[in-house]
Amino acid sequence: MHFFLFKGYAQKKSINKPKVTAVKKTAKPKQSAAVYLNEYRAGLMTPSALDTATFIVARKKEIEQILKDSLPVKWYLEKGGEKAILAQKIALADPFFTRYLFDLKTKKPLWNEIFGVYPARPGDIKKGITALPGALMRVEMYNYANNLTTIGLVDIFSMKLVSADHYPDMQPDIPASLIQLAEKIAIHSPEVEKALGYKPSAKMPIMSSTKTALNRTKCERSQHLCVAPTFVQGNRALWAIVDLTDNRLVGLRWTNTGTDGAVVTERKIQNENVADCYCEKVNSINQQGWNMDYLLTASDGLQISNVRFNNKRILNNVKLVDWHVSYSGTDGFGYSDAVGCPIYSQAAVVATDPPKIAELIDGDSVVGFMLEQKFFSELWPGPCNYSYSQRYFFYNDGRFRVTCASIGRGCGNNGTYRPVFRISFAGNEQNFYEYAQEGWKRWDTERWQLQKPSTIYDPTGYQYKISTGAETSFYIEPGNGQFKDGGRGDNAFVYLTKNHLDKDEGENDLVTIGPCCNTDYRQGPEKFIDSNPEKTVNTDLVLWYVPQMKNDDREGSKYCWAETYYENGVYKIKAYPCFAGPMFVPQKNLY
Amino acid sequence: MNNLYTNFVFCFLFLTISGIKAQQEIKPCQQEPAFIRTLGYDPLWTGMSTSEKTAIGISLIVFEKQAGKSFPTAQTPKQTVYQHPSWKMAGYLSTITFDFKGNIYTIPAPLISMLYNKTEKLNTIYAIDANTGEMSEWKSLPFAAKPSNKNPFGLLGISYDCSGHFLAAATVAGSDRYNEKGEIYLIDVATQKVTDKLKNIDAMGLSFGIDEAGKKRLYFGKTRTGDIYSVLIATNGTMLKNSVRKELSLEGYGPRGDDKARKIKFNGNQLVVSGTAFHYNLQASSEKPETVYTFIWLPKQKKWGLIDYQ
Fold it and tell me: Which residue has the higher pLDDT, B11 or A339?
């Protein structure tokens, strides 16, 4: 029943064939100048698309071949003739120059390319270096895996490397062959064609290979080698940012030529696109009987609101208020992370990619869809950096599920994650029930409860039930490892509070609701339970759901974890998400 | 995770530079706070920090004295960390500056969450008395607009002027994506009165210096671009608005290309700028590597030239 395949339509596709209707509801609608196309961290569940363009296939084959060589380096053969070849030979024979050709621990070959060989400039020659005129050559090599530049100075007369330096996070001028590759990737991209309104030709992009032009774009987040072929139309220029590590188009942005001197980078494109299209715009979904709005908040994650199924209003809204992360090794050490918009927000872990919508497939049928938003720290999956996923599932039969996951990596292997969901059902005459020995038992006042191994479920696995009106009730099935998303059980705190329509108890964006490191029920929602708990019978209610997930970095049981691994000469990311969250199952047929 | 805006200052390693050429630093005047000796520590082997992982507020770091060395470095092992009970009152803090009496001034900045910083105090400068070591609210600056969840910050920079004894403070409180409502204040330290302000400028890094004409300027790093601007400061503490000029930009430089000037300081005729990402959110600094850019004034070209970044 719970086996699904995600048939995701990446944002790339939805640009051309939108499945989701974007509805502007803000007072000042603004057209985004930025388009972010794809995520560089694809692979959590969605396989990355296969490259079919011949020039990319050829490039990848070339890389594969070079990685098999004794020195995994592509030589520079474009200019300089025999002198340049000799200079490379001398440099590559020196162990200091070649120090980073292989992974220092595993000794696996990393993808390197010599970008240029030039006569040494006066500034290259350090004090104490002497050589005959014309003898010194400068060799510039780039390491794609480490985003590292190595510059060597060789004496081609004495056949020696006279100096070498390694520069992390630095990229040399790219050779003509890479300029051409970047142009090809841009020209053959349907997104560029769509933005320009025609298919550009190879002669059209204007991209200087001078240092200034090359430095005018960065892929700050991926730390990849990126350049920006630029298409000028009148007084506007379309920047196409191309990632030459992954050989793909990252994004597009229009700028005004002349007046707009700002640098267009990967991060700017991502941030502006997400802010323009999802933080400042309410978007809507109308799919498989479900209607809803969704908005990326400043600090409460991706919020869905006005959720209806078959025209029946089900939810006022649902959002993810906080992530509490505590580490057991150090008393009181941890963080309260808010997730949300990438700029002008109170988020500590931010959305860098747009939300995705994917079909849920069971066997040969589409049984529903999923709305997902991911959040990232800048240097994830490095230590003490975080990534989270938020997923809403909606099924054709009226069920829905609210989930989230930590995708590691955090500050240690002794961390517990406690996300705080706020779920507000529609209806003014709600009642909430718990399954007990004697059957369904109503909660008459505000309270909280912890899901434990001793918790009693009804024969179908439901722990709670909420009736939202005379004809509508939902069973609540907490995670017990049954959802086949890797989740190992929610161990959740559940809080029931009265939803005051005349005062704000979390309806608007909440500032951090609780501290990082409480290990008991004091996760924040208890603040809304009065010392004299209010009645919760036949009234508006809010359900707070706080699952607890303990991370694990042990081989074979990694959970709430992420790490890098080696593939084809570069490092990629492997994620072990820990999903948690309840399923809501309609008691009565909602048709 | 360390706060992006936290700071560490070795208390008493102020270099004296004499002779003014081109754009230059102002001769440092800061003194050691007397309370450090009262506590029994050698000021030379201490530092004030707002970036201690497990301590909210400001801390006095006492370093282990090492034979053959006359002062500590960032790598020197810590002997102890001292906190006066009042030093936690403002929540997480960021920039620290000293005056000529040894008083310490610092400003609040939320770290990762708003849990420990009150929104209404984001524009309050705190001072630690040089003699008693007690921290208290020193000056609350007005909010240009109501703070919102679109911007968790208020004050982002302070700097002490050793030649005129003014304190400059930059706040971005009330700014949002479309409205730059930040202000840069100049405050007479003796009277605690605001002598002037620049409106509608969001800035973080601040530093006083002497320009190529020998006049005092306040240099400020904007938070929406990588630009550093300056404004002439008159002896009476007014800022000559028509003298505002762009000095340089970090745009496109460094490993990220979109750094903002978090910290600006003069080192002789060099301008040393600590640049980092800043997007008006609460992402922590462990995710935001910092790059130090060194510029030198080129008198012939009348502009700053980048000579190094690391």
Answer: A339
